[in-house]
Amino acid sequence: MEDLRRTYVSICKEEGVEPQEYVLGQLSELQDSTGRPRLNLSTHCLSVDTCAILGKVLQKEVLCTEVVLSDCMLSEEGVKLLIQGLCQNRTVRLLDLKGNNLRAASAEALGKLLRQNRTLQSLVLEWNGLGLWDEAFAVFCEGLRANQNLRQLDLRNNQISHQGAEGLAVALKHNNTLEELEQALQHNTECLSTLTESKKKTQILSNEIQFLKMEKGKQFLNLMGTIDRQREDINKSNRKSSIRIGQLQEALNERTSVLNSLRAKLQMTEAALALSEQKSNDLGELLTSSKLEKSEIAEKHAKELHYLHEEAGMQQAKLVRELNTANEKNLQLKNKVDELERKCKVQQDQIFELKQDLMSKTAELKLRLVQTEEQFEMEKKRFKQALEDAESLRMKEVEHMTHHLSESEKSLQERIQKLEGMRIQLEEEVSRGKAAALLERAQAEEEMVKMRKQLRMEEEQRMNQQEEKIRLLIQSRDESQVHCLQQKQCVLDLQAKNTQLILEVEGLKHRIEELYQELSGKEQEKVAEVNRARLELQEQIGHLQAERTAQEGFKEKIAALERQIKVQQNNHRESLLDKESEMSSLLEKLRLKDAEIKRMQEDEAQRANYLQNAVLAYMQGSPHRGISMSK
Question: Does 73 have pLDDT greater than 50?
Answer without folding.
Answer: yes
